Amino acid sequence: MSRYWHHMMVAAAIIESPSGILLVENKRSWQDTTEWSLPAGILDPGETLIETAGREVSEETGLTVESWGGLAYVVHRIFADRKIQLGVHVFSAKSYSGEIELNDPDGIVVDACWADADRVRELMPSAAFHQPIGDWLEGPRSTRIYEYREVVGEPDELLSRSDLGADSGDV
Questions:
Q1: φ, ψ for residue 165 (rounded to 5)?
Q2: pLDDT tens-digit profile of 33-58?
Q3: pLDDT for 122-170, tens place per residue?
Q4: Are strands 64-79 and 16-17 parallel, antiparallel or unpaired?
Q5: 108 and 26 in contact (C-beta within 8 Å)?
Q6: 121, 130 in Cβ contact below 8 A?
Q7: Before 140, cis peptide (omega within 30)?
Q8: N or C: fewer beta carbons within 10 Å in the chain?
Q9: How far apart are CA 45 and CA 67, in angstroms?
Q10: How many Å apart are CA 124 and CA 10, to the nearest integer?
């Protein structure tokens, strides 16, 4: 048995409008279903976290992030049964331009919507998705780190939540 697990790094973006937070619906071929998330993706070789977040917003929604407000939160997800550790760094968009246009080159994104906190909970039943977004929306807007253990067929287990204080500032 190997002591090494598979590690993945993801960057995501919180984009707000008066209608709520922008979510995208992703095809999950291995589950034959869809799942809602923030615009997000795995880092390409040599890419920074913020570059990845911006690229994914553009690819998945057609929007362009003009400026960033900083690191909103980090989620560390432990999938023990699959021996995967996933680190998700979520950045807040300060300003953006464009209109939503679904043209994902990976063919994963099938829909997008603006969602308030209640709708986020409805579309994203996993606590590892909706809890950090809800905390961020309800404020105060400070950078946090969340760690969850996830086992197939069981509710997410929140292992820790740390508040790092004031937001991380402009990026």
A1: 100, -155
A2: 888 999 999 999 999 999 999 999 99
A3: 999 888 989 999 999 888 788 999 999 988 888 889 999 999 876 555 5
A4: unpaired
A5: yes
A6: yes
A7: yes
A8: N
A9: 23
A10: 18
What is the rounded distance in angstroms from the CA atom of residue 110 to the CA atom of residue 104?
8
Task: Give the other-Cβ count within 10 Å of 161's Cβ.
Answer: 14
Question: 130, 50 in Cβ contact below 8 A?
Answer: no
Concatenated DSSP letters of 82-149: GTEEEEEEEEEEEEEES------TTS-EEEEEEE-HHHHHHH--SHHHHHHHHHHHHS--EEEEEEEE
Which class for 23: exposed (0-12), middle (13-18), buried (19 or more C-beta within 10 A)?
buried
The number of CA neighbours under 13 Å toward the Cβ of 4 is 3
Superfamily of domain 6-161: Nucleoside Triphosphate Pyrophosphohydrolase (3.90.79.10)
- Report which residue type is found at 161: R
